[in-house]
Amino acid sequence: MHFKVRAAAKEDCKEISRMIMELAVYENMADQVKTSHEDLKRDGFSPNPFYECLIAEVPDEHKTKDGYTVVGYALYFYTYSTWKGRSVYMEDLYVMPDFRGKGIGTGLMAKVAQVGVEKQCVRLQLSVLEWNKPSLDFYIAKGAEDLTAKEGQWCLAPSLMLDPVTLHLLLWTSREIQRT
Amino acid sequence: MHFKVRAAAKEDCKEISRMIMELAVYENMADQVKTSHEDLKRDGFSPNPFYECLIAEVPDEHKTKDGHCLAGRSTCGHVSVSGQRQPGYTVVGYALYFYTYSTWKGRSVYMEDLYVMPDFRGKGIGTGLMAKVAQVGVEKQCVRLQLSVLEWNKPSLDFYIAKGAEDLTAKEGWHFLRFHGQTLDTLAKEAPKD
């Protein structure tokens, strides 16, 4: 099937939001989504963006029954390894169920890899839930190494997480240190 | 003990490099370090930096034979907002972090390295550094601070759990995957043409 992968524009944020929700439903976590398309717009399309995003589109004649032509996305950002240098982290990779098995997921991920390589990144990293065998198999087949299995390395994000309450406790600690 | 936490400046890159190597030695991975202080300078101090870094310093008068400061008096540390190197202070720890994004929760901060030289541990410096990372994150409206720990590194795991961190590998079953070297290049070649 003919498809195109391109950088997301500000105007794509509603579509990205729609697909984020679809992915959350797939991962049984729909109630966890707190970001809106306005958050996405503010955080991805400002001078120091928090992420970059690629969109996969199919021609009108293949659009979904609901009329969508945007059928997948890959959202990623740059990270840093103090040992190896620049890296890229793929936070989300999603293709709508009816468009799977056609190379779109591979196309999106490969484009993230290409963008990373052009920026001299030496690693592309991501996390997968251990029950998500189809995704794990997909990435391993593409050459990914499972570092949790191999090095007992606990995951990048999220491995250890401090929630807002704990974050504020730490902030209080920082202020206490400042006062004396 | 008296210490200061401040933003790293370009000139600190040699010191950060020194401590990165010390941390790698602690993790039994010294041969794995490929970054130089010039890489750190280029990647952290350009218009779109790949990371930010905080430095912990103690007063010069407590210097060790290697030129780093010894534990001394027991006054609390203070946080300086300027990125300037303080005259009369020596670097004994760092926290290196960058911003990440959760499509469900939004802005996040990830702490890649937290390190305090062995002679300066147990004095609140690690906590001070991490708390400052948290503060910087909260000021930028981040809703999470995240990090990774090797499962054998029980002292570090205990330190973070004691501070309130949640272990999501244990709780939710995440696996961390990586493409690098040949596998990264092979994957990049599959990108559709524009």
UniProtKB/TrEMBL annotation, chain A:
GO terms, biological process: polyamine metabolic process
A GO molecular-function descriptor: N-acetyltransferase activity
Pfam families named in the record: Acetyltransf_1
Keywords: Acyltransferase, Transferase
Recorded family membership: Belongs to the acetyltransferase family.
Residue ranges constituting the N-acetyltransferase domain according to the UniProt record: 3-166
Name of the featured protein: N-acetyltransferase domain-containing protein
UniProtKB/TrEMBL annotation, chain B:
InterPro entries: Acyl_CoA_acyltransferase (IPR016181), Diverse_Substrate_AcTransf (IPR051016), GNAT_dom (IPR000182)
CDD domains reported in the protein's UniProt record: NAT_SF (cd04301)
GO terms under biological process: polyamine metabolic process
Annotated ranges, domain N-acetyltransferase: 24-192
Molecular function GO labels: N-acetyltransferase activity
Keyword terms: Acyltransferase, Transferase
Record carries keyword Transferase: yes
Superkingdom of the source species: Eukaryota
Family: Belongs to the acetyltransferase family.
Protein's recorded name: N-acetyltransferase domain-containing protein
